[in-house]
Write the structure tokens for this entry.
Amino acid sequence: MANELARWQFATTSIYHFLFVPVTIGLAFLVAILQTAWYRNENPEYRRLCKFFGTLLLINVAVGVVTGLVQEFEFGMNWSLYARYVGDVFGGPLAMEGLAAFFLESTFLGLWLFGWDRLPRRIHLATIWLVSFGTILSAAFIMAANSWMQHPVGYSLNSKGQPQLNDVGALFTNPTFLWGYVHVILASLVTGSLVMLAVSAWQIRKQHAVESFHHTARLSLVVLLPSIVLALFVGSELGVIEAKYQPMKIAAAEAQWKTCKPCSFSLFQIGGGKNDHTPSQIIEIPHLLSLLATNSWGGEVKGLEPLQKEYEKKYGPGEYVPNVFLQYWSMRIMAYIASAVLLLALWGAWLLHRGRLERSKWFLRLGVWAVVTPFAMNTAGWMLTENGRQPWIVQGLMKTVKANSPSVSSGEVWASLIVFVLIFTALGAADVYLMLRYARRGLPEEEPQPARTLPTTTPALTY
Amino acid sequence: MLALHTLWFILLAILWVGFFVLEGFDLGVGALHTFVGRTDTEQRVAINTIGPWWDGNEVWLIVAGAGTFAAFPAWYASWFSALYLALLLVLAALMGRGVAFEFRGKRDDPRWRRGWSLCMTIGSLLIPLLLGVGLGDLLTGLPMNAEHEFTGNFFDLLRPYGLYTGVTLLVLCLLHGCTFLRLRTGPPITERARALAGPLGWLAVALVIGFVIWTRAEVGKTVPDPVQALAILAIVFAAVLAPREHPGWAFTCSAVAIAATVGSLFIHLYPDVMVSSTSAANDLTVNNAASGHYALAVMTVVTIVFLPIVLLYQGWSFYVFRGRVLVPGQADGAPSPAPPADRPGGQAPAQDPPGAAPPAAPA
């Protein structure tokens, strides 16, 4: 029970945290681009846009940062057996993340926020780029740690049977890491640009500062289109890597109980869960699964049944098949929404090309509502990858059921789960309220140039 | 040669010291901002004195936690799971306080602002108190079995020594916040901070002396300890200087006092990292809790490369915003003492007029 609850809590807190992370990574990058535009052409419009989207970024960062704290503590609080067992390898990237990325991100965010008109323009521009760099760097370390859980590398088992790091380079050349990391960064750019697109589309529809928001609509589409194309491509390559190291994950994502060769992909099916190994596939696309999972036209994909037998032989009796229903649908939700976003991006690009973007009512209307899509995609993507790792907490090394803290009772986890849900609900409500409020108001007023007599060291009343 | 696990124990002690010295003052300011600031504008001034830095200061705690995970996984696992409910409160405090900075000024509504101010105050009080309890418990010991798993309940965490450590650190942070405010802003906030600093200073003196005596009794040592002596000396000077016209020296002394107090706790903990009150055989030590040599070597290299860079840019950030934050409109002949000679232009007004709806600056 305590184990189940700890899993619920970790899933809840990490999914919630990851609603904010990709917005931060994506928007920080886009705001840095806006500020660069202002730096280069001194057009005050870009400065106003930069501050406008900067405010949205900051509101979002506040919640992203504090929910990240929970993650950092939870490994020890809820998963003491896991922490004790893997810390030698897994703790390293987390500490590196703090030293190399969190310090950078937080210090330069403070410098950027309070440094308007205080720092020389060039230096102030550098601070937002360092913030953006910090966010992208921090994702690298946490993804390296996560990828090690998916596909452990660079270690040897010591006399107590615990993994000990013996090759730090391997953590950062782990194929699961390389593809997964790029995928996450691309998904973040997709998220950031969809948020920017939604706000710009809303403002254009309301005829507020149409010309200014046309710039940001264009910028968001210019970033969105290549990002979504690449994210789809990299995601499918990641699938091939996972099929190699975590065949259960991919077989479950297709509800493929028997081995097949070549394998078709079902667009939609009924059944296929634990008690129904022969689902009725409604629409099948021949060869597509072979192509996705193995990169070859007639590749073989091992079924869950033979894999289960194989695992029992290797690791002893037990259930090694993850939740097939979750796998199957999270894969499809992610992929189908991504395809829809690709279409939207293509449509937007075409409208831009024809110079009709601000007049296309339907595109602007859809562009606003598209803001929900990245959150659904990102969540589904993580469900796919983390649920597909079960029953392992570290693939092949440690099972999730044996990893939670023996000293923490289910009552205590209930208490913390309730507290987290309450706090997250309150923070989420405040965040959405402020995001909407600031996204709906117009561009900030043109500020008077600061008097030259102002000391450059006095921070303004920013908070 | 210095063993790597000992080096990492020292590094973690430095991270905790860094956390309390830096975050200490912003916790103090956060806890006291409604006492030193009566109007909303004054409260905002107080909050903005720590505005550019509080987030970077907090990272010292995160790195201390993650560094413990990397260098002493068994310590991290036992300590964090033992402190489960206490850390839950710490997390709630960190979350409420963290978003309060960003959210408070975003809406011009007294109830909204009072609510976030309350989050900031309570959060800033709870964090040093509870972390102090957690640190004190390391030294006085928690029930722990042979697998180093905690075997007690929530009330086992509330040991007298741990609680006392928590109260001591809390009062030190409050004093540190007062000495910081006196450096960073002007009247009337500095006057109120000065009035608070007097009693807080002498309370801190009593608490630190008690802490030194109690710690020595806990570990059964009688040899003189220069770090503890430094803690007492620094806190006495801080208490004497705090109400006087030496804000720079008072702040230096409160910083040294916090550093020496936290540092002395780690000095007396070594070579244990977490004492078991069940049996000395179950103690976690730098030896039996540490990661392997290779992992420690990698982390040492990473730290040697990055920590100096961090110190450089954090130091630069403190330099950039060294000027005072003042209540708007105060500059022009308002009755206030002259700015210290070494801070030219320190009396310039901050930008926003009082009560301006959400600040025009980027937030």
Summary: Chain A touches chain B through 89 residues (CB under 8 Å). The beta strands of chain A are 155-157, 163-165, 265-270, 280-285, 392-394, 398-399. The first helix of chain A runs from residue 2 to 41.
